[in-house]
Specification:
By secondary structure, the protein is an all-alpha fold. The chain has 2 domains: 69 residues; 63 residues, no CATH class. The chain is built from 9 helices and no strands. Helix 2 packs across helix 3, helix 6 packs across helix 9 and helix 7 packs across helix 9.
Length: 153
């Protein structure tokens, strides 16, 4: 079956169009997946092998597939250099902190706990507050702070 993958021009053409410049890596991953299959599993997919390969390649090249790691964009964050940018950043921090202090005690507590915990699910587990309630509160607070900080510009 690996011979079929390596020599099938139609299948390799599909892999090249789907995976782009990483098509050889994609074909190697496909061969690795096939080599991990048992004889029983290979017999089962033999009648529709090309279809199975195309589906596997499509899944590998999805946003969360095996090949997604090759497409990750590296973004370089440039530090703020000018005095105006630093002043704007400081002003934004101060206005955000002021808005957080002005929130209702529950909203402020949920937001600060969320910042400490790092994610909503962990906060929900720790506080026994339903995840949907935490999500709604965080979303409402974010929108409120963004709106207030944009107005003060």
């Amino acid at each position: 079956m690996l011979f079929h993958v390596l020599n099938d021009a139609k299948l390799n053409g599909y892999i090249k169009t789907k995976a782009g410049s990483n098509w050889e890596d994609c074909r190697a991953e496909l061969c690795l997946i096939i080599s991990e299959k048992t004889t029983k599993e290979l017999k089962k997919i033999e009648p529709y092998f090309r279809f199975w390969c195309v589906t596997t390649v499509r899944n590998m090249n999805g946003t969360r597939g095996i090949m997604a790691k090759y497409r990750r964009k590296i973004t370089k964050v440039e530090p703020t250099n000018t005095v105006e940018e630093k002043e704007e950043y400081e002003r934004l921090i101060l206005s955000t902190e002021a808005e957080i202090e002005g929130l209702h005690w529950y909203d402020r507590g949920v937001l600060l706990s969320y910042i400490d915990e790092g994610n909503m699910r962990a906060l929900s587990t720790k506080t026994h507050i339903p995840l949907s309630s935490i999500h709604a509160t965080i979303k409402k607070v974010r929108e409120h702070i963004r709106k207030k900080c944009r107005r003060s510009e």
